[in-house]
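Crash report, auto-generated. Payload:
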Amino acid sequence: VTDRIDAVFSALSDPTRREVMRVVSEQGGASASELAEQIPISRQAIAKHLSVLAEAGLVKADRDGRQMLYRPTPRPLNEAMSWIAGVGAEWDERLQALEAFLRRGRRRRG
Amino acid sequence: MTPEVTVERTVLMPASPRVVWDALTDSEKVSEWFGAAVELDPRLGGAVSVRSRDGSLRRGTIEVFEPQRLLVLRWMPFERDAAGAIRRRQPATVRLTLSRKAAGTLLSVTESAATGPARDSLLRRQGLLGSRPELEKRR
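Recovered output after restart:
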């Protein structure tokens, strides 16, 4: 279980991957091409992010005609875990940036 | 009881509560560290809007405004992408607590959201699920 939690946190440590996960979750499923229309990176980059998310067990790929459709895995734990990992990583980044901002301000004030 | 998930972080900030509060409530200053262009009306009930680098827009409201002590804001359960389409987001509440320390200010952040079915029933009660076809389109 710990390994899986690590995989989830590591998969969601990347802001673009969090965005991919967010869109997949909120739409209930999407193909790499559909995601590329909504997230400003290439379809190839999206596909790479999707494979990391799939390895972490956060999304599952199903064949839908000629393309693959990625859906969030239905376990409720995943929804909670991906939210915690995603929001936690956002706050880690923001608080680090806030601390740096305050240090710069202190130097300016002398 | 509503199942809730919570993220909590506590960091000692190298500045007084007055300076930290300013960095949390002045639009220009918040925009320097938040990772997005933030506009907020610093008062109880004031509107908050966050424009991310990808062009999406998220809105919220200030629910508690106690200068240099406590700031609580509630995010709306949806956002608009760069093209103006509505996307669902978790309805969430952010609580920022400041306490004065010798070395600066202890800043504690708590973000909480309802999960899964609880979230959906919350959205339905607020009339945000089921009544807006654009939110339901792909379900």
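Post-recovery validation: The beta strands of chain B are 4-13, 37-40, 47-51, 57-66, 70-80, 86-88, 92-101, 104-114.
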